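User: I'm curious what two different proteins look like when written out as structure tokens. Can you demonstrate?

Assistant: Sure. I'll show them one after the other, since each token string lines up with its own sequence. Here's the first protein:
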Amino acid sequence: MNCEQCQQTLKCSADTDCWCMTLPNILPISKSSGCVCRPCLIKNIRAHIENIKSKSIKEQLALARPYQNNTNFIEGIDYDMENGLLVMSRWAHLKRGKCCGNGCRHCPYR
């Protein structure tokens, strides 16, 4: 099976516990029935998180709330590495549910 976006070969096990189930299930339902690889799915999730900026903070928090207790941070979704430093993403801040007061670059509460 190939990723429907980049055509990379991938293993999909949707009928059992697929690797994609470890990522936040926040994307709108798609008409496509194909699978995407991990990098493409992370890219799609990041784009969706950027797109919901226009929604109220209450709506954004409602989307993140089910993942609030998930402490398995995912590079590319919850954080990025920049110059050897861990930079928390907008999604990580939404999952926290409130501002930490550190003046974070991606803080959605400002």
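Here's a second, unrelated protein for contrast:
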Amino acid sequence: MSETLSHAVSLHPYFKIREGNLAAFTALMPAFVAKTATEPACLYYDFSRHGDMAFCREAYVGAEGVLAHLGNVGELLAKFLELADLARLEVHGPAAEIEKLRGPLADLKPEFYIRETGLENPLG
């Protein structure tokens, strides 16, 4: 596994969009993507939706990448949370990186998952 992926941390936030807010919520998604595109530690970032549930699939190099991202999109996230509830937040990664996030993310009440095993399958 590459050095980058061995430190990768993925976030899995699920948002329950409140009634009447779907259009406003989805209209903010491109702004999140544009801000996140400036982050060198971002490995991938995208949104998907099922009815009134939205999901953001995202990963970063290390806990520092996660914290930098949250600082970068903080104002947008506050707007999201005016339109939706954070229904669930999972954080997946190696134990050392997860430990760095437990304190800073405590207010979001995430579920932390420690990576046990896996593989990297490079395309090139």
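A detail about the second structure: The helical segments are 3-6, 22-36, 62-72, 74-83, 95-102.
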